[in-house]
Amino acid sequence: MEEKKSRLEAALFLSEEALDNKQIADILDLGSIGYVDMLIEEFQQDLEDEDRGLELVDTPEGYELKVKKDHLEHVSHLAPHQDLNEGQLRTLSLIAYNAPVEQTDIIDIRGNRAYQHVKEMVKRGFISKEKDGRTAILDVTDHFLEYFELDSVDDFKRQFENEQAGRDSTQDGIDAFN
């Protein structure tokens, strides 16, 4: 049991996305979702001890390990922007690059999980959402710019394009090498 719990901890620590019960069962080579639920509950109780720095959070996408709020202000500078998972960051980047953009366009590209990402980004103040017929118009907020230390959305677009250009030239170098 302890070995499975430590592997669960390692998987949650390394995963860039939340893990659901089925994914956890696969990682731990377990056939029983009931056993997974019991293991998660026990691990969650272990983390509730006041001298632990992490907590297990149950999100609509699955389970995530997060730094406890009591410690966040002291350690957040070590990994800026880590309070957002990869899926949220991808959705937010897509919105920022195309802002203002219709929510239906984002969902078409990112899939139904993006609904939850949008909801979370609105809740956290990164984007605004204005109803427009059967969809909504999404745009970034000043809080988004402050959080990511940007002067404007154009700065974000320039940084993104420069990063893409760097990746493309790296790939060209790899292709030329082969």
Outline of the structure:
The protein has helices at residues 2-14, 21-27, 33-47, 69-75, 86-98, 103-110, 113-123, 142-147, 153-177; strands spanning 54-59, 62-67, 101-102, 127-132, 135-140.
| Helix share bin | 55-70%
CATH level 1 class label of the largest domain: Mainly Alpha
Indicate the CATH topology of the largest domain. Arc Repressor Mutant, subunit A
Contiguous runs where pLDDT drops below 50 for at least 5 residues: 170-178
Shape: globular
State the end-to-end distance. 47 Å
Number of strands: 5
Written as H for each helix and E for each strand, in order along the chain, the element string is HHHEEHHEHHEEHH
How much is the radius of gyration in Å?
19 Å
Written description of the protein model:
Helix 1 (2-14) packs across helix 3 (33-47), helix 5 (86-98) packs across helix 7 (113-123) and helix 6 (103-110) packs across helix 7. The protein has two domains: 2-78, Arc Repressor Mutant, subunit A (Orthogonal Bundle); 86-177, Orthogonal Bundle (Arc Repressor Mutant, subunit A), CATH 1.10.10. It is globular and about 50 Å long. Helices cover 59% and strands 15% of the residues. The chain contains nine helices and five strands. It is α+β, with helices and mostly antiparallel strands. The strands form two sheets. It has a three-stranded antiparallel beta sheet. Strands 1-2 form a two-stranded antiparallel sheet. Residues 170-178 have low confidence and may be disordered.
